[in-house]
Amino acid sequence: MAKYRGVIEVDTERCKGCNLCAVACPLHLIELSTRVNHHGYNYAVQPDQTQCNGCSTCGIVCPDGCITVYRAEK
Fold first, then answer.
1. Within 10 Å of residue 9's Cβ, how many Cβ atoms?
2. Of 9, 39, 46, 61, whose CB neighbour count within 10 A is largest?
3. pTM value?
């Protein structure tokens, strides 16, 4: 059981939908939204926010710095 609970915050208007964060997530919790931003890109979302462990891998691999990861102790 993880000691931390994580939540990601995606800047949806900057996200280009490259999907690198979804591929990098070890728990496979990130996916692309069916909705699009003002630029016409499907942006990254985290539908289930209860399973994230806050590892920050998604934020590290994001080429545009769109993802911020918050961690809190359980």
1. 12
2. 46
3. 0.86
Contact partners, residue 64, CB within 8 Å, separation at least 6: 14, 15, 16
Q: State pLDDT tens for residues 16-67.
A: 999 999 999 999 999 999 999 999 999 999 999 889 999 999 999 999 999 9
SS3 track for 24-71: HCCCCCCEEEEEECCCCCEEEECCCCCCCCCCCHHHHHCCCCCEEEEE
Q: Is the model's pLDDT at 1 over the cut of 60?
A: no
Give me the residues paired with residue 36 across strands.
42
Tell me the CA end-to-end span of the chain in Å, nearest whole number.
10
